Amino acid sequence: MVLRNDPFRELDRLFSTALRSPATGSAMPLDLYREGDSFTAEIDLPGVEPDSIDIDIDDGTLTIRAERATRSGEGITWLTRERPTGTFARQLSLGRGVSIDNISATYRDGVLALRIPIAEEAKPRKIAVEHTGSTGTISAG
């Protein structure tokens, strides 16, 4: 039986325990998938200014914060207000097996994409077997 450290399983488990807004379920819904040697998390943040997005890592916990401003001003009378506003956050425990120093983030069309590469030491590899026996002859006695 071979036991492997699967960072995807750990990430998936930990992503599911992220912070959620009680009223709306999750103000930061995400998709997570593995493609090749990296994971990608795509987080919906429509209406968020890119400058308000803050991502940091502390002791294996990745925290994403973003703010959606409240529209206010004279003459505004709200008829329906369903879109959440304010500051939102998700915390993700990355676990072992990912390359924390090489995580990258892009924001396009209201979607924050995090690329989380698998660490070299966590990738499966083959170990070559070297033959060290000597060749010799057997004599019949």
Walk me through what this model shows.
The structure is a single chain. The protein is mostly beta strands and 141 residues long. It has one domain (7-122): Immunoglobulin-like. Helix content is 6%, strand content 33%. It has one helix spanning 7-15; strands at 30-35, 38-44, 54-58, 61-68, 86-93, 104-108, 111-117. The strands form two sheets. A four-stranded antiparallel β-sheet has the order 1-2-7-6, with helices on one face. Strand 1 (30-35) and strand 2 (38-44) form a beta hairpin. The model is unreliable at 17-25 (pLDDT under 50).
What key attributes describe this structure?
141 residues; mainly beta; Immunoglobulin-like; four-stranded antiparallel sheet; three-stranded antiparallel sheet; 7 strands; rod-shaped
